[in-house]
Amino acid sequence: MTTKTLKASAAGIGFAPALFAVVLGLGIVTLTGHVQASALHDAAHDVRHATGFPCH
Amino acid sequence: MTPHMTCVTQLASPATKHVFSRILTSALFAGAAAGLIAALLQLVFVQPVLLHAELYESGELVHFGAEAVSAHPDLPGIDLMRDGLSIIFTMLTYTGYALVLVALMAMAEGQGHTINGRTGLLWGMAGFIAFHFAPGLTLAPEVPGVAAADVGARQIWWTGTVASAAVAMWLIAFARSWMLWGVAAVLLLAPHVIGAPEPAVFTGPVPTEIGALFAARAFGVGMAAWVLVGCFAGYFWNTEGARAEA
Predict the structure, then answer these.
(1) To which H or E segment does residue B222 belong?
(2) CA A21 to CA B102: how far, in whole Å?
(3) Is residue A47 one of the residues assigned to a domain?
(4) Domain that holds residue A54
(5) How far apart are CA B172 and CA B123, in angstroms?
């Protein structure tokens, strides 16, 4: 019983960093690829076209 | 019983403590390296095509005008500000991809799968299909100036297509039943059967030769960069793990 609880909590701690990294990564991709704020759009313009993001 | 439990706690605690820094370090190295190579490949192979298209977008060149137009006009050279920003944003984008990739690699390794530079090549190919090829199959990489539907609608379709293709690639790699592989096939096909937002009329002033070359180059450079980011991510995840254990 105790061993089970320990394993479950260890798996939980192991899953959290992975989930956080996925959210962080998708956040960065959203910022560079999708946000339409004009300063960001202009700076990332060529990259968005070359990487196949919908741009305009 | 007690020594066994102590052992579990001691093994899990330092490992989980360092999981996030291991993910972060591996992803930063892999993303920055692959992003830099991607940016240089784009500057050499994609940017000239884009600049050529912009001459038609701005009206400086006119396709099917009174006179035939040379297919080899003088193009603007390196623009430090513009191309520098492109390099930074490409490196950022690939670091974002690498964070997702390494996190999923960490989970797969937890389930007993081997992660290294070699298996990373396959991860990179799967990432290319999910993030680049699947959305690009129907919303082809666009040169500046093409007609397109509302950008918000296309972003929603793009996001949904990437999400369903990513799940499909995971199922193809790790599922062990024909039913789940069938689900993967449906997830890959559905967005294209449903269809992406398309423009009502075509207004693109750019010659079709330039548009086709641009799409081909964007896919080619994307595939090279993704295979590299997968390889680097697997390699750094592996070596960072070996270093942590040493």
Answers:
(1) helix B208-245
(2) 8
(3) yes
(4) 17-56
(5) 12
Q: What is the distance between the alpha carbons of residues A41 and B220, in angstroms, rounded to a whole number?
A: 24
CA B231 to chain centre: 14
Task: Examine residue A9 and state whether it is found in any structural domain, yes or no.
Answer: no
A22 → closest Cβ in B4, B100, B143: B100
Chain B positions in Cβ-Cβ contact with residue A1 (cut-off 8 Å) = none
List, for residues B31-90, the tens digit of each pLDDT value: 999 999 999 999 999 999 999 999 999 888 888 877 788 888 888 888 999 999 999 999
B215 φψ region: left (φ > 0), alpha (ψ -120 to 50), beta (else): alpha
* Both structure tokens of B85: 């920003």
Residues 1-56 of A with CB under 8 A from B: 2-3, 6-7, 10, 13-15, 17-22, 24-29, 31-34, 36, 43-44, 46-47, 49-56
Q: Cβ distance B95 to B27 under 8 Å? A: yes
Total count of domains within chain A: 1
Q: Is B161 on the interface with A (CB under 8 A)?
A: no
Q: Locate B50 and state its tokens.
A: 């884009």
Residues of chain B with C-beta less than 8 angstroms from the C-beta of A20: 20
Cβ contact B19–A18 (<8 Å) = yes
Q: Are B230 and B117 in contact (CB under 8 A)?
A: no
Q: What is the pLDDT of residues A34-53, one digit of tens each?
A: 999 999 999 999 999 999 99
The answer to whether residue A38 sits within a structural domain is yes
Q: Kindly provide the ipTM of the predicted complex, given to two decimals.
A: 0.87
